[in-house]
Amino acid sequence: MEIFAFGIAKDILKTNKLILETDGNISVKELKIKLMEMFPEFQKLASLKIAVNNEYQEDGFEIKIGDEVALIPPVCGG
Amino acid sequence: MKHISISNQPLDLSHCMSLVEDHTVGGIATFVGTVRNHSQGQTVIRLDFEAYEKMALSEMGKIADFALEKFEIEHIVIHHRTGSLSLGEIPVIIVAAAAHRKPAFEACQFAIDTLKETVPIWKKEFFENGSHWVSAHP
After folding, report:
1. Across the interface, which of A7, A70, A78 has its CB nearest the CB of B136?
2. Could you report the per-residue pLDDT of B79-117, keeping only the tens digit for each?
3. How many CB pairs under 8 A join A and B?
4. What pLDDT score does A22 carry?
5. I need a surface site. Which of A58, B48, B51, B134 has the fewest CB within 10 A?
6. Mean of the per-residue pLDDT values for chain A?
7. Which residue ranges make up each domain of chain A?
8. How confident is the model at residue A24 (pLDDT cuts 50, 70, 90)?
9. How do the domains of chain B map onto residue ranges?
10. Identity of the residue in A4, A11, A77 whose CB atom sits nearest the CB atom of B116
């Protein structure tokens, strides 16, 4: 699974695109847990949201192979 | 009508105003964000803005659609800049045009407040002795 990262998430991963090996589908919650284990710096953020195909998704959402996944740390436009 | 854009080129208020020219309009409210020289007691040198562009455009479009439906406005413009901005430069312009002033003000405020909450754009502040991503940590 390819995961795009922006802002501070990019700094934490040290790349703007993480390749993550998964066994089939994975939920948003499972992905967050996995990332926080692999990169504990994520635990310190004010929030971490996951976007799938350009939409925010809740913990229970199942990510399918081929979906566009992105890590959304706290946003701060304007 | 809605006009949404993300660009790494300087934003232009008069261009944004021209997008809402319409004789049914009696009031135009604008919000122009500018880069200021201080943040939490520190001197800011510049700001870098980064966007998840495709999703940011989609979220900006949702804000515009909602504003057009909720408030009695005719047009809304939401333009955001990306890249490295110096003091005084403009990261965001919102323009809301309506027959009457109240919905124009309300839509303008709604749009900038919601943009800051939902649109995937990030801001890095650069100080004399370091930098940080704004709002990243509690």
Report:
1. A7
2. 999 999 999 999 999 999 999 999 999 999 999 999 999
3. 76
4. 86
5. A58
6. 96
7. 2-72
8. confident
9. 2-130
10. A77
Which CATH number describes the domain made up of B2-130?
3.90.1170.40
Other Cβ atoms closer than 10 A to B78: 29
The one-letter amino acid code at A6 reads F
How far is B38 from A29, CA to CA, in rounded Å? 38
For residue A12, pLDDT over 90 is answered with yes
Cα–Cα dist B68/B56, whole Å? 18
Name residue A54's amino acid. N
Contact of A19 with chain B, judged by CB distance below 8 Å, is answered with no
Question: Per CATH, is A2-72 categorized as 3.10.20.30?
Answer: yes
And the tokens for A76? 């701060």
AA letter at B31? F
**Chain A CB contacts of B122 below 8 Å:** 6-8, 73, 75-77
Q: What is the ipTM of this complex?
A: 0.95
